């Protein structure tokens, strides 16, 4: 089942912060975050694993609430280069090791 | 490493024709995924392989779609016959092990006229 992302779109000024949320109706083992710029492939940002292990990006942080089956991506002091569409991908405890992606959050940072 | 390599980058074909998309995963990666991306449906998982074996093809839209992975360094996604509603960007991704980072190829933009 596809995770739900919110908001659908965000417009920021350079230097402002943003939070993107991702929630699932299924028990999760891991949450992945990717960013995609127009016409390009999704690029890995962050992976959060059950049990607290986190691998990620030095300018962006994220949290994973296993009990609530939710994750949030925190973009602080946004830069113009942060513009793009952010996807969360979730892996459940059952059904194989496949990643199901949300519909995406479009982020636009203006000067 | 060269990353995940997909070919062709663009494909324009007429309805009814056969289309074959190709993917070379990163060396040493044992999982390979095929995705389709459209504005309406987002990024959909079509099928994935583990050690060249198809594990889950529940996302394949219909019998017109088929995928193979004859060896660890090559996979194909075939559409026969193609229809205009198949127009989309098709991505291939690979990763090493379960619960790990996926690396996406540049994608193939397919237009079926």
The quaternary organization reads as heterodimer
Greatest interface and its residue counts? A-B, 26 and 21 residues
Proportion in helices of chain A: under 10%
The largest β sheet of chain B comes out as: 7 strands, mixed
Describe this structure in words.
The complex is a heterodimer of chains A (about 110) and B (about 110). With about 110 residues, chain A is mostly beta strands. Helices cover about 0% and strands about 55% of the residues of chain A. Chain A has strands at about 5, 10-15, 20-25, 30-35, 45-50, 55, 60-65, 70-75, 85-90, 100, 105-110. In chain A, strands 2, 4, 5, 6, 9, 10 and 11 form a seven-stranded mixed beta sheet that branches. Chain B is mainly beta and about 110 residues long. In chain B, about 0% of the residues lie in helices and about 55% in strands. In chain B, strands 2, 4, 5, 6, 9, 10 and 11 form a seven-stranded mixed beta sheet that branches. Chain B has a four-stranded antiparallel beta sheet with strand order 1-3-8-7, with no helix packed on it. In chain B, strand 4 (about 30-40) and strand 5 (about 40-50) form a beta hairpin. In chain B, about 35% of the residues are buried. The model of chain B has no long low-confidence stretch (mean pLDDT about 95). The interface of A and B includes residues 41, 87 and 91 of A.
Question: Which labels suit this protein?
Answer:
heterodimer, A: about 110 residues, mainly beta, four-stranded antiparallel β-sheet, 11 strands, globular, B: about 110 residues, seven-stranded mixed β-sheet
